[in-house]
Each structure stands twice: as structure tokens, then as C-alpha cells.
Amino acid sequence: MRTNLAELPSAAAALEHAAAAPADPREEPSVLEQQRQLARAFGRKPEIGFVARFTVLNLIGAALIGATWVEGLLFKPYAADSSGMCYLITALFGWGLVCCLRRDWQSVRWVGNALVYLGMVGTVLGLIITVSDLSADKAETFESFKSIVTSIYIGSGTALYTNLLACIGYLWLGTNAHLLARQEV
User: Is residue 165 within 8 Å of residue 89, measured between CB atoms?
Assistant: First the structure.
């Protein structure tokens, strides 16, 4: 029952024996054939797993969007933004999600960075809208005061909502990239 360790062939001797003896292709499948068999057996499961993780992760986000809709907050950024930047940010974010699904992480990174810059551009644009309607020449009447407050409201809505949408889009894409591919955006 007990074997003597000295009688067992060493690993080096086994490798030499395997290298010296030509392999019969009928006896052992080639490495490429084994890889093909493994790809056929296990090739679809990681793809299905990725799509499932993507779906679950973004269904959570969709549920949060549904909650903002129920509360009546979903369309406020679009109503307050007179420049259309919120629509541009939303379209760019949608393209970023498509890139996540396609596993194009370089494009996801580009979209995330573009969202940050568009948020800053929206903030500056909102401030420009705010100060462009202000003037020192206006008479000190109640009507001029109302127009000043209105321009401040419109400009600050553009500034804050574009920045808010851009930050939310950046965080959402970053979460997708991190949890699905361990990538940084």
C-alpha cells in the first residue's frame, strides 16, 4: 500500500516524457479545440450575467426616477431651463447608458466627463441669463423689481438644474462603470 517516494517519477521527468512522446491528435484534443468546447459550454453565461446585472442596476435607477415623477419633481428641471441644456444632458446621458450596455468603457468615460463640463456650462449660462436682464437704468418701480426677480429665478433655475442633472448622470454612469466593469469614469 505504501509507495516509496523515490520510486515515483519526478515532475521534470514527466514533462520530459510528455515532450519526447509525440501526441496523437486522435487521443487528445488540441488546445484550440478545448478552448472552443469551453467557449461553447460557458460562452453565453457571462453575457447573460452582465445584461442581468445591468438591468437590475438600472431598474433601481428607473425606480428612483419613478419616485421623482410621483412626487411631481421629474419635469421641473426641463420647465425651469430656458436654454435647453437639460435636454442635451439627458440625451448625452442616454447615450452613455447605451455605451455601458455595449461595454464601451472609453465612451462611458468620455460621456461622464462631458456631463460634468456641460453642468458647468449650464451653470455659467444660467448666471449669464440672470445678469443679462439686470440693469441699473431701470426705474425703481414694483414692475422693475418683478422683472429682476423673474430674471433671477429663470437664470438660477437654468444654473442649478443643469448642474443637478449633470451630476446625477455622472454618478449614475460612474456607478454602472464601477459595478459592471470595475472601471473609473
Answer: yes
| CB neighbour list of residue 90: distance below 8 Å, 6 or more residues apart | 165, 169
Taking the model in full, what pTM does it have?
0.67
Distance CA 56, CA 54 (A): 6
**What CA–CA distance (Å, rounded) separates 90 from 149?**
28
Position 126 in a domain: yes
DSSP 119-177: HHHHHHHHHHHHHHT--SSS-SSHHHHHHHHHHHHHHHHHHHHHHHHHHHHHHHHHHHH
Who contacts 177 (Cβ-Cβ below 8 Å, separation ≥6)? 100, 105, 108, 109, 112, 183, 184, 185
pLDDT digits (tens, 9 = 90+) for 34-81: 878 777 776 555 577 888 889 999 999 999 999 999 999 999 999 888
Position 174 in a domain: yes
Range of the domain at 73: 45-181
Task: Output 74 or 138, whichever has higher pLDDT.
Answer: 74
Answer yes or no: is 171 within a domain: yes
d(CA 148, CA 127): 13
Would you say residue 57 lies in a domain? yes
